[in-house]
Amino acid sequence: MTNIVALNSQTHRALHVTPSGQDARNFVGVVIAEFPHLIPHYPILFSKDAETGAFYCGAMLGFDPDENLFSGEGANVYRPLNLQRGPFFTAGSELVIDLDSPKVGAGERLFDDDGAPTAYLKSIMALFRDLVPGIERSRIFTETLLGLKLIEPIDIDIGLDDGTKRSLVGLYTINKDVLRELPDADVLTLFRRGYLHLIHLMIGSLAHIPVLARKKNNRLLESTGLKL
Amino acid sequence: MTGVMGAMQAIKDIVIVGGGTAGWLTAAVIAARHQGRIKAGHFSVTLVESPSVSIIGVGEGTWPTIRTTLKKIGVSETEFFRNCDAAFKQGGKFARWTTGADDDFYYHPLVLPEGFHDINLVPHWLAETGGRSFCDAVCVQGVLCDEGLAPKTIATAEYEGAANYAYHLDAGKFAPFLQRHATGKLGVRHVLADVTQVNQQENGDIANLVTEQAGIIAGDLFVDCTGFASLLLGKTLQVPFKSCSSVLFCDTALAVQVPFDRPDAPMASQTNATAQKAGWIWDIALPTRRGIGHVYSSRHMSEDVARETLAAYVGPQIKDLKVRKIPIRSGHRETFWKNNCVAVGLAAGFLEPLESSAIVLGELSAKLIAEQMPATREVMDIVAASFNDVTAYRWGRIIDFLKLHYCLTKRTDSQFWIDNADPATIPERLQNLLKLWKYRSPWFFDEFDRLEEVFPAASYQYVLYGMGFRTEVDPYEIAQTARMAAQYMRQNMAIAARLRAELPKNRELVQKIQTYGLQPI
Fold first, then answer.
1. CB proximity B520 to A under 8 Å
2. Is B235 a catalytic residue?
3. In whole angstroms, what is the distance from residue B301 CA to residue A90 CA?
4. How close is the nearest chain B Cα to the Cα of A105, in Å?
5. Helical (H) or strand (E) element with B31
6. Min CA distance, A136 vs chain B (Å)?
7. Searching chain A, which residue's CA lies closest to the CA of residue B521?
8. Shortest Cα distance from B515 to chain A (angstroms)?
9. CB-based contact (8 Å) between B289 and chain A?
10. What is the per-residue burial (b if ≥16 Cβ within 10 Å, else e) of A11-24?
11. What is the SS3 string spanning A116-153?
12. What is the pTM of this model?
């Protein structure tokens, strides 16, 4: 359940929020400005919004539905903005919070005793100043690629050491054949808008999928006590 | 010159007469297939439409082939939904056809039985004692229909589905939609004019059309899509009509459009076909309304009683609605392609709308013409002969398949049903198959599926075993595949459980498509 209310320095003066913690999901939406931060660790792919069917780009975190193979990495690994924002959202220009989120209760204060925002809350407000326009820019990037037929489905099939298999569907990546055949004028446009760089980051990020599979395998082995 | 040089005449100007669903569908299919030649200026498709004749527009049910057809002609599925008031159709639900009791129904879904290419599940199901319907034992679609679910989600790409599907659509909007696409994107020329005279050459070929508003229109191949009038093939070329009213008795339809009580009322995911005393009632859900019609045999029921029957089905609101009477002349032309003229749609023939054969036959004919487009007049007769063979075969099989729904009945509550079960009214080929099927159920390796069958062996299975037909089972024969059969049936249950959890309601998805659209991939 969700209980979303506008954030208020009076009523929420004593509220505590856990900034880190478990984000039990295997895919999270990202904005294109994050790509350079994501590229050292995450496969960057497209998926579709379950509600509208619209394409969006995101980082793959795991293979099973609630599996985040990056949880517990702490500051070693860049954490996507959509995870950093915790229980906060925006509604129009207003900052709102889901009071039913498990992240609400203990942790950092949002306001000091005088009702002024804490450093933590200020960082959240700064985060949304990046995230909100970033979502729109990422949408335009995705629409542009879709219009050029540069997006294609990718089937991710892995076999694990315990004999089980995982097949991920509903993920999409760059169609390299279409990219190669792209007319010069389109290539130039993509380059000038900085999209060509992002496209190559997405292609390169696919190399993280087998790494992620190994990570999952190691965890499986650890949990069964078979660590080699 | 054409007289002497006739044999070498290249086929490059196609003239289609008639602007209904069949006409625009044929124009779009031919133009899409020959786009390269059209763009190069070596080929043309012209559609001549009378500005004064209104289209029939009762065909509201389609077959899954329509998805391939629309995709091939380059239509976006989202645009199709938005412009044609389309909704998902996952088959037919046939109520009261077998015993006439309140709980008597079966589905003819659009998916194949699980593992159909590996194994025939019919004998295994027949040997079961569980009481599951054949449809539920072998496929998911009956369950999806029971719950009014869509065959896909908003995240499924255009024309793809978790379950096979077709559409219900507003035929009055479909033809104009195809027209905009064909003229705007595919280079089809549209001429609004009444044909006043058809000129023939010495060999009988159509030379040109004289029109009231646009002068003379010449062509190399003429496609007759003039509906019941059959202006070119019937009137000009004198190809006789072959009635099949001794097999299929229904000859009249009373159609009405019924608004929903509220805009978010559930929409059925299948065509409902409910048997009556002398025919049946179709019930097709579009986003905006339900199309309901009583198809009946006027030899077995008076119009007054037929109207009362329809009113009893629709309810009191029928008082304010306009009921349209449509004659159904069941049958088809003896040949479909003669000289340089081929008929598509109602000009070729018509059957009662049971199993929605009208649009699919038009699609198949259009596709065949487009693919087999003769290069010259010299080879046209060869193409015509094979077109006639295939098309006559298709009409025959559709008539057989429609008759199957009637002749398997156990109803004896009216002369209509008694007459339908009379062997004298059952085509010989169907009678022979029914004899054969007592010992062996129809399947994949039969003579079925030898060409693009309108109704494959799976369709016969659903109707036969939906209507309680029994095929003898040899326990020794099925023992060797029993494990595989059990595995496929379990797999089917697992798929059904997953899809029930994943799929939205038909209404919900259609609304989402109108709001957000489907993605092309």
1. yes
2. no
3. 66
4. 33
5. helix B21-33
6. 17
7. A152
8. 8
9. no
10. ebeebebbebeebe
11. CECHHHHHHHHHHHHHHHHHHHHHHHHHHHHHCCCEEE
12. 0.91
Chain A residue numbers touching B517 (CB-CB < 8 A): 53
Q: Which of B71, B72, B89, B93 is catalytic?
A: B89
Residues 6+ apart with CB under 8 A from B45: B14, B16, B27, B30, B31, B34, B38, B182, B186, B187, B188, B189
Mutate to test the interface with A, among B154, B159, B512 (most CBs of A within 10 A): B154
Whether B78 has its CB under 8 Å from any CB of chain A: the answer is no
Query: Do A54 and B519 lie within an 8 Å CB cutoff?
Result: yes
Tens-binned pLDDT, residue by residue, of chain B (521 aa): 444 444 578 999 999 999 999 999 999 999 999 999 999 999 999 999 999 877 666 668 999 999 999 999 999 999 999 999 999 999 999 999 999 999 999 999 999 999 999 999 999 999 987 789 999 999 999 999 999 999 999 999 999 999 999 999 999 999 999 999 999 999 999 999 999 999 999 999 999 999 999 999 999 999 999 999 999 999 999 999 999 999 999 999 999 999 998 988 999 999 999 999 999 999 999 999 999 999 999 999 999 999 999 999 999 999 999 999 999 999 999 999 999 999 999 999 999 999 888 889 999 999 999 999 999 999 999 999 999 999 999 999 999 999 999 999 999 999 999 999 999 999 999 999 999 999 999 987 666 555 667 888 999 999 999 999 999 999 998 999 999 999 999 999 999 999 999 999 999 999 999 999 999 99
Closest by CA to B433, choosing from B414, B448, B422, B420, is: B448
Q: Count CB neighbours of B498 within 10 A.
A: 12
- Give me the interface pTM, i.e. the ipTM: 0.82
Give contacts of A49 with chain B, Cβ < 8 Å: 155
Query: Terminal CA-to-CA distance of chain B, rounded, Å?
Result: 52
CA distance B244 to B125: 35
